[in-house]
Amino acid sequence: MAITDWPASERPRERLLAQGAGALSDAELLALFLRVGVKGASAVDLARTLLAHFGSLNRLFAAGRAEFSAIPGMGDAKYAQLQAVLEMARRALREEIGAGDALASPRAVRDWLRLRLGHLPHEVFMVLLLDAQNRLIVAEELFRGTLTQTSVHPREVVKLALAHNAAGALLAHNHPSGVAEPSRADETLTQALKQALALVDVRLLDHFIVAGAGEPLSFAEKGLI
């Protein structure tokens, strides 16, 4: 049955307008993005097929062009649309972080990091530099690969902070394994970077570990900084 044949109160678009986007399931939200289904399957049916294939929205968002386009009913046009939506979400959150005190918007910081790092299959280390009012100056990827004190050089982080006249810094990296707990290497590296930045009067405010779609772990909240 086509969605247009459903009772108005059950159609995703009408429910969103009446109750808000939060009232919809993942499949219903995805169906609104897809707009139409394929022969024999509504947009909601197709959305459920996509979620079943990829396992989660996060894995769907992380899918490459070839894997995404291989699903019947998908293709380059839908892939391009999805990537555009994700990039707009990242940019909107980046604007929110940069517009005011980043520490006053911890949810925006976490959501941006999750969108930026949560889907990656490899480990990435990022530095977010802040001015004296905790406004974001720049967010830069410094390293890819397994993090150790020898692979992430404190001098490179300090050099970047000095180049941007930063007053504070946030660190972030992802765990592709999906487990957000910090390793001993993570803790050792964090302390080394904190000490190095302190030498040039830059405060290390937090270090986040992003693991998939879960809540990023904060070193500050864990008492590890």
Q: Could you explain how this protein is built, in words?
A:
The protein is of the alpha+beta class. It is built from 9 helices and 5 strands. A 5-stranded mixed sheet has the order 2-1-3-4-5, sandwiched between helices. Strand 4 and strand 5 form a beta hairpin. The longest helix is centred in the middle third of the chain and has 24 residues. 28% of the residues are buried. The model has no long low-confidence stretch (mean pLDDT 86).
Task: Provide tags for this entry.
alpha+beta; about 45% helix; 5 strands; about 15% strand; about 220 residues; 9 helices
Q: Which radius of gyration do the C-alpha atoms yield?
A: 21 Å
Coarse morphology:
elongated
Strand content: 5-15%
Average pLDDT across residues?
86
Return the structural class. Answer: alpha+beta
The spatial strand order of the largest sheet comes to 2-1-3-4-5
User: Roughly how many Å apart are the termini?
Assistant: 56 Å
Q: How would you characterize the largest beta sheet?
A: 5 strands, mixed
Count of strand segments? 5
The DSSP helix count reads: 9
**Helicity level:** 40-55%
- Write the H/E string, N to C: HHHHHHHEEHEHEE
- Give the low-pLDDT segments: none
SSE layout and pairings?
Elements: H1 12-19, H2 26-34, H3 43-54, H4 57-62, H5 65-69, H6 76-99, H7 106-117, E1 124-130, E2 136-144, H8 154-163, E3 168-174, H9 184-198, E4 203-210, E5 217-218
Parallel strand pairs: 3-4
Antiparallel strand pairs: 1-2, 1-3, 4-5
